[in-house]
Amino acid sequence: MSTPAPAPVAVLISGRGSNMQALAAEQGEAYKIVLVASDRPDAAGLAWAREQELETFALSPKGIGKAAYEDALDRALRDAGAEWIALAGYMRLLSDAFVARWRGRIINIHPSLLPKYKGLDTHARAIAAGDAVGGCSVHVVTEELDGGEVLSRAEVEIQAGETPESLAARVLVEEHRLYPAMLKKFVRA
Question: Of residues 110, 123, 139, 176, which has the active-site annotation?
Fold first, then answer.
């Protein structure tokens, strides 16, 4: 019996792409990154991806609108042969229509223990609430913001005197560990 080919994955980023880099470091038998795409043409992660000779796509939705942007993104994903999408610090909400086209094939890494603290400012919210732990979650993307099935979580103890920045730095270490492991399982499920 032959080994299946690596699953073709596109990674969507908006910034420095540290989770994309963690995913790239672990690609192999389970998945291969076929495209790194961004809604910000100046995203630092795109430069890193190009240095690694990964195919990239960058387009800002400003001036063309969300529908035209998502149509162009969808074409780029399909032209690259992507069958799966990993959101890695992608800060744009995807439309219901886009999510429907890729239903069950998009995952996201989120910096909280979902279902707590959907959206932004997750670390500050966890600290303000007096939580003992923060962390990150990998979940399936649905039309509901950060509302899809949670595939896995990693906890990080919130320490005395913790700041949102210090907690974010420690959670990011767990994100880099958790996300590649979950992507491997997700594309092989």
Answer: 110
Tally of domains within the chain: 1
The answer as to whether 21 is a domain residue is yes
Residue with token string 């910000």 = 40
* Three-class secondary structure of residue 9 per DSSP: strand
| DSSP letter (8 states) at residue 4 | P
In a domain, 1, yes or no: no
5: left (phi over 0), alpha (psi -120 to 50) or beta: beta
- Do the domain assignments include residue 81? yes
Q: What is the pLDDT along the chain (189 residues), one digit of tens a residue?
A: 667 899 999 999 999 999 999 999 999 999 999 999 999 999 999 999 999 999 999 999 999 999 999 999 999 999 999 999 999 999 999 999 999 999 999 999 999 999 999 999 999 999 999 999 999 999 999 999 999 999 999 999 999 999 999 999 999 999 999 999 999 999 998
- In angstroms, the CA 59 to CA 73 distance is 8
pTM for the structure as a whole: 0.96
Is 110 noted as a catalytic residue in this protein?
Answer: yes
Inside any domain, residue 2? no
**Token pair belonging to 148:** 């899809």
Can you give the residue range of the structural domain that contains 106? 7-188
Kindly report the CATH number assigned to the domain that includes residue 97.
3.40.50.170
